[in-house]
């Protein structure tokens, strides 16, 4: 069986070593350690890992920047990233999620908790068997053909405005991931600074209303944003 490959990006060697030891204990994971953002960006070039644990505070290139670069590259745009943050401020968490981290763990953390998060993120990231067509999403209630711009819930087609459609598309494409209002504004509305973040809430509200049982799959994550859950 092929081992799960995890890349640990952490400049504090003690912490990196403990994480590596914890993850490799079960025998089904191989964890590599690099101690700088620069080295991380190089290490993922040959063969992207299955998951990256990324410290926020790194010398030279910080974790946020590394995350942003990884997300912008086609080879690593979908590799799950768990961010380690020493700070407990909400803005750090939001920033991390904004640049595309899947989850975050605040230092000091328990190794057990981190290992559990790793398992959860890997589970979420598994592509569905037999559903390779990225343009069509087939969920329990929702079928959305993003190329044909056709959305149906429990077999009934649903009419959405262009904005609602784009919002749903972005939520579904990033399913199980928390998306901040700012990120949604940026990706769905463009860079229009005149739009208030509150209009995201209004559109999400309308979208939920139109989608019936699927509306409940769009969760509000208090203080952070929204998440489409499967
Ligand atoms: Ca560090």
Short synopsis of the structure:
The protein is of the alpha/beta class and 230 residues long.
Which secondary-structure class do the elements indicate? alpha/beta
Mean of all residue-level pLDDT scores? 87
- Low-confidence runs of at least 5 consecutive residues: 128-132
How are the strands of the biggest sheet laid out side by side?
Answer: 2-1-3-4-5
Can you tell me the CATH class of the largest domain? Alpha Beta
Classify the fold: give the CATH topology of the largest domain.
Answer: Rossmann fold
- Could you say what the CATH architecture of the largest domain is? 3-Layer(aba) Sandwich
Task: Identify the bound ligands.
Answer: calcium ion
CATH superfamily grouping of the largest domain: Response regulator
CA distance, first residue to last residue: 28 Å
- The helix-strand sequence is EHEHEHEHEHEEEEHEHHEE
Largest sheet: 5 strands, parallel
Residue share in β-strands: 15-25%
Radius of gyration: 19 Å
Number of domains: 2
Looking at the chains present, what oligomeric state does this protein adopt?
single chain
């Amino acid at each position: 069986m092929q081992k799960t490959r995890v890349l640990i990006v952490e400049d504090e060697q003690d912490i990196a070593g403990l994480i590596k030891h914890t993850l490799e204990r079960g025998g089904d994971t191989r964890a590599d350690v690099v101690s700088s953002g620069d080295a991380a960006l190089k290490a993922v070039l040959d063969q992207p890992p299955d998951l990256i644990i990324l410290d926020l505070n790194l010398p030279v290139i910080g974790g946020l920047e590394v995350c942003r670069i990884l997300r912008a590259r086609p080879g690593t745009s979908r590799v799950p990233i768990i961010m380690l943050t020493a700070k407990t401020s909400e803005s750090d968490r939001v920033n991390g999620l904004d640049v595309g981290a899947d989850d975050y763990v605040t230092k000091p953390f328990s190794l057990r908790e981190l290992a559990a998060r790793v398992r959860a993120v890997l589970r979420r990231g598994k592509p569905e068997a037999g559903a390779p067509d990225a343009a069509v999403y087939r969920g329990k209630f929702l079928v959305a053909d993003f190329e044909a711009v056709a959305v149906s819930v429990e077999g009934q087609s649903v009419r959405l405005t262009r904005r609602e459609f784009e919002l749903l598309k972005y939520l579904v494409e990033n399913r199980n991931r928390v998306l901040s209002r700012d990120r949604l504004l940026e990706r769905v509305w463009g860079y229009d600074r005149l739009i208030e973040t509150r209009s995201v809430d209004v559109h999400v509200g309308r979208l939920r209303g139109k989608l019936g049982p699927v509306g409940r799959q769009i969760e509000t994550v208090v203080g952070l944003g929204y998440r489409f859950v499967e």
